[in-house]
Amino acid sequence: MKRFLCLFLACILCCCGLCGCSKGDDAFVYAVSGTPDTLDPQLADSDVERILAVNLFEGLFRLDAQGEAVPAACESWSVSKDGLTWTFTLREGLFYQTDPEEENAQPVPVTAQDYAFGLQRLFAAGGNSPYRQSFLDLAGAAAIAAGEAAPETLGAYALNDRTLMLRLVAPDENLPRRLCCAGAMPCNREFYEATDGTYGLEPDTVLCNGLFRLTLWSAENGVTMRRTIPQEGLVNRVRLLPYEALRTEGALTAADRLAQQLTDGEFIPGVPQDAGSPVFCVQTLQMVINCRDALLANRNIRAGLASVLYRSLPEELPEGWSTAQGLVPGSVGFGVKSWRDTAGSLLNAALPDDGAQAYRQGLTELGKVKLSGVTVLVPDTEEWHSLYAAVTLGWQQQLSAFFSVQYLPEAEILSKVRAGDYDIAFLSTRTAQDDVPAALAAYTQASTGNLTGYADAGFESLLGEARTAATLQQKQQLLREAELLLLGSWSVTPIVTTAEHFAMAPGFGGVAASPFGPVLDFAAAATGQSI
Questions:
Q1: Chain centroid to CA 525
Q2: What values do phi and psi take at 67, rounded to 5?
Q3: Shared domain check, 520 and 446
Q4: Are residues 74 and 124 in the same domain?
Q5: Distance between CA 12 and CA 489 in Å, rounded?
Q6: DSSP assignment of 224-286
Q7: Tens digits of per-residue pLDDT, 7-57?
Q8: Domain containing 227: what range?
Q9: 50-63 residue pLDDT tens
């Protein structure tokens, strides 16, 4: 450990002067929201943690640059006729990384049991893995999550060192895509238990098996990864810098950072001029209402506000913005299509016919003539100012609702909302997983992403039934009912969704960019004139 810490400190000293500009540097630089709290992939819950997980670890599958699931540690697989049993064969010669400075280090093999244990950890007692919802269709998962069975009973079994079997309760042809996520990475049980609760909290309390190794973890300078076996023509070093470490004056947009060569890749709002670049829709601008507030807990009040808001939107929205059709944005898939193409626009179906009448009914139920003391938090940007101007005009004209407004940085608004210190807030949210149940599960009572205090046993029951539905059609119907139920609560109202694309500096290519998280996989990232 001392040898590793010496190397670690040396890396920090060498890198301290390199932050803030990628020009003249051989690394691929990407800006992230902060530094990781953990290297444990089963707990990866921020952009930097997810990116580290898919590069420091190797799952059974990975997403390629076209967004397709391709084999990684998995050599081959088969599916039973009923679609419920998947059997995977690992490649030969898989090992965890060892410290290059440690003499006579004994290689630790990666086995099928490690992948089974990684999935079991998602359902550990008292666990808070953000990936639990994505794997509730594994046999036994529901009983384990309810505390009725042990994690070892999960339908994830090692038949031998190289053969893993997964049992599902319902067929799912998209299982390989789900197995690309951080939560499905391997975990060596013996090593994990030896860390005695510190797994992933330090570089030497985690075993990684990916194509990259961690060489820097600094609060000031972010994290740096190097390819374990450098290859000519590929990106061999990646630096994930916190926005603060870019050391710029004033707030910069993603496009500004890329244009000023502060970064080498960015998710940029809007549709690219290059028709070959994929366009993603994973971010939703929404209104959230604090259901814990005695006045705003009234459903008719919320329904009136939401209805008038939605029907007061300006006809012309900024480039890349489009009117929301539901809580799940357009890029989240379902079967071979997107969820929005499958479920259609549910927002119109949920809106009351007469928002003003619903609002007046709510006032009557509260014994009020008007609401007072309500403050609305709005992000302090030109686009939000324009959007809220149209909304508040609608509220005033149709509801005689006059509220105070505070324009704040969106990060400050999010902090207040998480603390429950708000009445009504406007903010943007990014869907973290390409999975409809997981996207909706962000609004369950146990989720840390539930910002409104909304709780409904019927909603949670529908999500649970959807995970165990026997057919895709039954799953679709249950999920549609769940989204409609959540929309009808009006605790959260989607307003618009935004389009974005991943742009890179000249000379780079091959980065597998997933907007969910977001996550970047550098396995095939290339650099040089040949791109």
A1: 22
A2: 80, 15
A3: no
A4: yes
A5: 50
A6: EEEESS--TTB--EEEEEEGGGG--SS---HHHHHHTTS-SEEEEES--SSTTS--EEEEEEE
A7: 333 333 333 333 334 444 578 999 998 899 999 999 998 999 999 999 999
A8: 2-264+505-527
A9: 999 999 999 999 99
